Amino acid sequence: FLSILSLIFLSGNRGIGAAPGEHRYRFMSSGFASGGEHSYGAYGCGCGYIEDVLYPQQRKWCGAIAVTEGRFKATTLAKLGFITVNMHSISNWKPAGEVALELAEQYNARRFVLAYDQENNKATTQSAANLSEMLNSYPVDFAVWDEKYGKGIDDVVNAGFLEKISRISAEKFLNKAA
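Now predict its structure.
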């Protein structure tokens, strides 16, 4: 009998300035409880993609679906009036995009806003390009800011620099990143 219980817990030691390799969230399973080394699930199980959608509570929905990486960023965007899909890694752009498209259809969304961290690396650029192409049946914009105001959108908003965030089209964003 394979018992599967996936949990997310805070590691407690991850925050601003954390050492590389430390993680804020960890995925766990009780699959190891099913038996010995050679049994199915002996080392736990993969969690797959966990759908994590946040809805605006304090403001009226602005008509857009946001996609970002990280619960704190997603919470910030929901507080700003977005229905927000939280990718648990930029490599999860495809399942996050599928969820975003379903939400857009269900709620009659007008556009997507993608809020990636302001870092220039190949993995982030590729994820952004793939996701924006997947969502291109709707207008797709990127939230951008000068990285001196913060790495993530949550950092920028929490530091009081909301007015420093702007939106640019996916085409402009990807041309600039290339």
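Residues 1-18 have pLDDT under 50 and may be disordered.
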